[in-house]
Write a structure and sequence with these properties.
This protein is an alpha/beta fold. The protein has 13 helices and eleven strands. The strands form three sheets. A six-stranded parallel sheet has the order 1-2-3-5-8-9, covered by helices on one side. Strands 4-6-7 form a three-stranded mixed sheet. The protein is globular. About 45% of the residues are buried.
Length: about 375
């Protein structure tokens, strides 16, 4: 199976300068559909036999800005400025897109307006594909959304509710309109008039605009009520259990620990809530301080091996024991690479890249995954 992604973060700067980019629904949806049509002509007429699956956008908590569609583009690009190292500071894009520059953009909240535009652009591109290309190409089309599992800090009702609120914002913000036809009730209560509304015509296009659920996921968060971050649903995230122990092994990134049980829980949650086949399109681990280690030591990436051992076991259990329909699993990533704000310091690859010589060396995690896929995936499904 060969999968292709049409869009992953990269909005042309010219479109942002011209009309505000994702902040301007009327313009960006049209341009995105035009882009999708041009891409489909190339991809689906010249590569018909090579690929039967297409991801319209990669990642909603990652879209205009990273993993895909949605959240990351909206939150990272137009909410808190995580990529610029100053939490809570507006991004350069929003500093440039003022009301004076674009009068139509006044009196609304940029991240939620951007998210609304992302959902609509995805939906209308899917409609285009289904009307003009699917009959000939015969493939599937859908969206990949970024979202990690949210687990209650303890059994108290307020923290159980907080974990659901986190899922409503991190996943439901984009998934609920696309698969269920509406924004989560909690988001409506939280944002009120700041949450854009779909017209009846738009909603007909949005609901059902994905043939599968594409999942980018990395970790699990313990959730407590009372946080101050709107983009986390006013939920506090922690990796520290009530008894003071850590949830799992700490990665190089502060936001990532391994907890395979959470991966299984998330697969079950997505399957039961949205009832469509799941394609895990990103899942991986960055070993702490790997870049500062000698190559020989970095190749013995035991923490990453343990991460994949746990998550592949959870994946297998979810499929064979729980009945979850998982169609694909794409570990992140094949190679060490440029990791956004972290640059080349954070390494997610199962293949070590010597950036000075460009030589590449398989790590122990690569050997584990090759063997696991050989043992667990039938040749005809590869």
């Amino acid at each position: 199976m060969l999968s292709q992604t049409l869009y992953h973060w990269d909005l042309p700067q010219a479109l942002h300068d011209r009309y505000g980019g994702w902040l301007n629904k009327d313009e960006i949806v049209q341009d995105y559909v035009h882009y999708a049509k041009a891409s489909c002509r190339v991809i689906f007429t010249r590569m018909v036999e090579m690929s039967k699956n297409t991801v319209v956008r990669s990642a909603s908590r990652l879209s205009e800005t990273e993993s895909s569609t949605g959240a990351y583009s909206t939150v990272m690009g137009h909410g808190v400025s995580q990529f610029w190292g100053m939490e809570g500071v507006s991004s350069p894009q929003d500093d440039q897109a003022t009301e004076n520059d674009h009068p139509k953009l006044a009196n609304s909240t940029p991240p939620h307006r951007v998210g609304h535009s992302v959902i609509l652009s995805h939906a209308y591109a899917v409609r285009l594909y289904r009307e003009e290309f699917k009959a000939v190409q015969g493939g599937q089309i859908g969206i990949t959304l970024n979202g990690d599992w949210a687990m209650p800090y303890d059994d108290s009702p307020q923290n159980v509710e907080a974990a659901q609120h986190a899922l409503d914002v991190v996943i439901g913000w984009f998934a609920d309109p696309i698969y269920l036809g509406h924004y989560p009730e909690y988001m409506k209560q939280m944002l009120q008039e700041r949450l854009p509304e779909f017209t009846p015509e738009e909603l007909k296009v949005v609901k059902g605009s994905s043939d599968f659920y594409g999942m980018n996921t990395y970790t699990t968060h313990l959730c407590r009520a009372g946080g101050d971050d709107e983009f986390q649903g006013f939920v506090e995230y922690t990796f520290i259990r009530p008894d003071g122990t850590q949830l799992g092994t700490q990665a190089h990134c502060a936001w990532l620990q391994d907890y395979p049980e959470g991966f299984r829980d998330l697969l079950n949650y997505i399957w039961k809530r949205y009832k469509l086949p799941i394609y895990v399109t990103e899942n991986g681990f960055a070993v702490k301080d790997e870049s500062s280690k000698p190559i020989e030591e970095a190749l013995q990436d035991n923490d990453r091996v343990n991460y994949f051992k746990g998550n592949t076991a959870s994946l297998k259990a979810a499929v064979l024991e729980d009945g979850v329909d998982v169609r694909a699993y794409f570990p992140w990533s094949f190679l060490d690479n440029f990791e956004w704000a972290d640059g080349y310091i954070t390494r997610f690859g199962v293949t070590y890249v010597d950036y000075e010589t460009q030589q590449r060396y398989p790590k122990e995690s690569a050997k584990f995954l090759v063997k696991w896929f050989g043992d667990n995936v039938h040749a005809g499904d590869r």
